[in-house]
Specification:
This protein is α/β, with parallel strands linked by helices and about 240 residues long. It has 6 helices and 11 strands. The chain starts with 5 loop residues before the first strand and ends with a helix. The structure holds zinc ion.
Length: about 240
């Protein structure tokens, strides 16, 4: 295993098989394990000379804790025909249209997807990313105007640890999964990152500006704390 290389294997945890990813880290001082909500599994980080077996021993020592955490994870929501996927916080049903053409789009409370079943998941994902880019870019432009700043560009990615970020060069990045969250949550995350274009810190002036740009700081932070892990399991 090279530095940071991941190998994943299925390991029994309290009678059920769980995906366990081994990560080699040159900087780690000791073996550690954590739950990865996006994958619904465990990540074991190994320092340079620690063995995989030593990692498994640590897992066994904490088997009860791991089993409890895995059981508490939100269920995966794959893009399948008939599945209900939240868009702006409202459930939309995936409706295949095998004979149609034109990819995937939203109509009323449905996500219509043309083509064969093998393309369905990818097309839904592309549709939601496109929608996320449109919505979050428009929101960022609106708030940037209020704050009298100009973002260099707005990117939409599949970030797993942050809902949004602001780079020193003025690039704003957002996780596409925010398009699944209610609009007030999108409003807050975008307001927060736009405020960073002025204040690259979390000081008092930053929060004052954030609250001028969005009225939803408290409710949205609470929503993300409770429902954020479920967003990571969509798709
Ligand atoms: Zn921040």
């Amino acid at each position: 295993m090279k530095a940071n290389e991941l190998t994943t294997e299925m390991v029994p945890v309290r009678g059920a098989l769980a995906p366990v990813a081994f990560r080699r880290s040159p900087r780690a001082a000791q073996i550690s394990l954590r739950i990865d909500p996006a994958q619904g599994g465990v990540v074991i980080t190994l320092p340079p000379r620690a063995s995989r077996r030593a990692g498994l021993t640590l897992l066994q020592t904490h088997e009860a804790w791991v089993a409890e955490k895995l059981a508490a994870l939100p269920r995966a929501l794959p893009f399948l025909p008939g599945a209900t996927v939240p868009v702006n916080g409202i459930g939309h049903v995936i409706r295949p249209m095998p004979a149609g053409r034109g990819g995937a789009w939203i109509e009323g409370s449905e996500i219509l997807v043309t083509g064969g079943p093998e393309f369905l998941s990818r097309r839904v994902s592309d549709c939601l990313r496109r929608l996320a880019r449109q919505r979050l870019t428009a929101l960022a432009a609106e708030k940037a105007k209020l704050a009298a700043v100009t973002p260099r560009c707005v990117r939409v990615k599949d970030t797993r640890t942050r809902w949004g970020s602001c780079a020193p060069d003025g690039t704003l990045s957002f996780c596409w999964r925010l398009v699944c969250a209610p609009e007030f949550v999108q409003d807050y995350v975008v307001g927060h990152e736009v405020a960073h274009l002025r204040h690259m810190n979390h000081g008092r002036q930053f929060w004052t500006l954030t609250e001028q740009l969005t009225a939803h700081r408290i409710a949205a932070s609470a929503w993300l704390g409770t429902h954020g892990p479920a967003l990571l399991r969509i798709g």
